[in-house]
Prior knowledge:
Layout: E1 2-4, E2 10-12, E3 15-16, H1 17-24, E4 28-32, H2 33-46, E5 52-57, H3 64-73, E6 76-79, H4 82-90, E7 98-100, H5 107-115, E8 120-123, H6 126-138, E9 143-150, E10 172-173, H7 181-186, E11 190-196, H8 207-225, E12 232-234, H9 248-256, E13 264-267, H10 271-274, E14 278-289, E15 294-298, H11 307-311, E16 317-319, E17 329-334, E18 343-350, E19 357-360, E20 381-386, E21 389-394
Parallel strand pairs: 4-20, 5-6, 5-13, 6-7, 7-8, 8-9, 9-10, 9-11, 11-12, 12-13, 15-17
Antiparallel strand pairs: 1-2, 2-3, 4-14, 14-15, 14-19, 16-19, 17-18, 20-21
Amino acid sequence: MTQYDSDQRLTVDGTALEDVAREFGTPCYVYSAKTLRENWARFESAFQRQNHLICYAVKANANPALLRSLKELGAGFDIVSAGELDMVLSVGADPRTIVFSGVGKTRQEIVHALNHNIGHFNVESVAELERINELAGAQNTIANVAIRANPDIDAGTHPYIATGLEQNKFGIPIAEVPKLEKTIKRLTNISLMGLACHIGSQIEKCEPFAEAALSLEQLRQTMTELGFEITSMDLGGGLAATADAPTINEWIDALETTIPPDVTLKIEPGRSMVGNTGVLLTRVEYLKQSDAKNFAIVDAGMNDFLRPALYQGWHDILNCRLRDQEQPLTWDVVGPVCESGDFLGKERQLAIHQDDLLAVTCAGAYGYVMTSTYNGRPRPAEVLIDDGRATLIRQRQKDLAEPIT
């Protein structure tokens, strides 16, 4: 997506990022529409079955322009709140392609989803099953549900983004699901049509995915023997957006090998769909050097991009003006927020000057959606590059002093 042109300027799809920063300022997220379309095509072509649905995980990046593009490409959506439901409905999503996940759905959120006849709920507790049944009964309707099973699989990822272990809050322990037979059959306003699991994010091996698919298929067979017709299997997302990750084809093959072809296979890619579509632009404000450490202080902080501080996420940082004739030094690239944990990257080899423009790569996922106004800092702008044209798709936040009403 990014490359240097003949003038040694870093570009996104041929558009110089220096020009983008000059027009829209920094910090600023910049996305490639071309890369998004290419990623979608890779997912679609990886499937060998007729019955499948790619439900984009909205929590990764909820900009309406990107959601609209994905809807037009044929995506369904994985949501975790009523707010995300409204976002995807606003871009014309078919409610039947919407999966509502998450452990803490409120009564208001469930009713809102029932009113819009979403595809199904991924249910994560017995209490939630009973609540959905109660609310569906009050509306004289039947709610489609899939039980999210927790298979207790270690995906080898950061503990904050591991979701498939018994110690995690997500899902019902897989051994407990068959024991719910009588409870489910008693709840007359739900229809158990699917099973689901999601074992974590940034997973760099196929084995955990294959193990989860096998566990879920074994559960499907058990539930079928108990009289349930399982027509949908949702294996979540979690494929890492790194060079060491399996290919999309390898990931899908690991799932398709196990799941029967007459069952609709659903996946919920987020980071692997949008991560490499975006960069975060930031300007070097000061260079601060000492015998102990060199700091490049930039105008983007942890309020603009939280992943490095929260997950110790690694993102390459590039100078938007190549200085390949200069000797690089080791820098910690840090922000202006009053926290020692405010950094975008540590121990980076960079040839940089004050006022240089830097690009934090692979920032299309869990970037803007996790921004805040901490330290009274406005949220950044977002820009989309499409066919050589840079378009503002979200304005920089302006008035932080406006009272909340």
